[in-house]
Amino acid sequence: MRIAMIGTGYVGLVSGACFSDFGHEVVCVDKDARKIELLHQGVMPIYEPGLEALVASNVKAGRLSFTTDLAEGVKGADAVFIAVGTPSRRGDGHADLSYVFAAAREIAENLTGPAVIVTKSTVPVGTGDEVERIMREVASGAGAKVVSNPEFLREGAAIEDFKRPDRVVVGTDDEEARDVMRAIYRPLSLNQSAPILFTGRRTSELIKYAANAFLAVKITFINEIADLCEEVGADVQEVARGIGLDNRIGSKFLHAGPGYGGSCFPKDTLALLKTAGDNETPLRIVEATVQVNDARKRAMGRKVIKAMGGDVRGKTIGILGLTFKPNTDDMRDAPSLSIVAALEDAGATVKAYDPEGFEQARPLLPNVEFSESAYAAADGADALVIVTEWDAFRALDLGRIKAMLKTPLLVDLRNIYPPAEAERAGLKLVGVGKPK
Ligand code: UGA
Question: Which of 84, 155, 205 to mutate to test the pocket of ligand 1 (most atoms within 8 A of CB)?
Answer without folding.
Answer: 155
